[in-house]
Amino acid sequence: MKIYDTAALYGQNMSDEQQSKLMEFYRDLLEEYDIATIHDCTIGAGGTTIPLAKLGYKVSGSDISENLLERTKINFNESGYEIELFNSDLRNLDTVLREPVDCIISTGNSLPHVTNEGVRDFVKNASKCLNPRGLLFIDIRNWDQLLDEKPLIKTWDPIVMTAEEHIGLHQIFVWHDDQSVEFAFATIKDENGKHKETKMLFAPMYYPLKRSTYERILMDYGYDLINYYDLDSIWIHPSQQRPKSGSFEADFHQIAWYGILAQKK
Question: Alpha-carbon distance 64 to 82, whole Å?
Answer without folding.
Answer: 20
